[in-house]
Amino acid sequence: MASRVWHAHEMLHAGTGVGAEYTGWIQWPKTYNREEYERIRRVGTEIREKAEAFIVIGVGGSYLGAKAAMDMLLPAFYIEKIL
Question: Which residues form the signal peptide (predicted)?
C-alpha cells in the first residue's frame, strides 16, 4: 500500500496522470498573488471593524469556498458537540 501512496504522491507533484490539469493548487503556496492576498486581508480587516455579521449568499459552487473557510475556523468535531 505504501508504494502505491508514494506513487500517487509523485504523480500528483509531477503533474502527471489523469486529472493533472486540475492540480495547480499544489503549487499555490509558492505561486499565489501576494498583492491580491494583501488586498483581501485588508478588506477582511475593514469588514471586521465595521460589521457585526457577514452574510455569504450563493448557489452551488459559489458557496463552497466560503463553506470551507467557515468549517476550517470551527473547532474540530464542532457539529458533534451541538447535536
Answer: none
Q: Is 54 strand, coil or helix?
A: coil
Query: Can you give the residue ranges of every domain in the chain?
Result: 1-12+23-73
Residue type at position 28: W
pLDDT band at 54 (very low <50, low <70, confident <90, very high): confident
pLDDT on residue 41: 94
Compute the distance between CA of residue 83 and CA of residue 72 in angstroms, rounded to an integer. Answer: 19
d(CA 39, CA 48): 14
Q: Quote the pTM value.
A: 0.51
Query: Do 36 and 43 meet the contact criterion of CB atoms below 8 Å apart?
Result: no
**Residues recorded for the chain:** 83
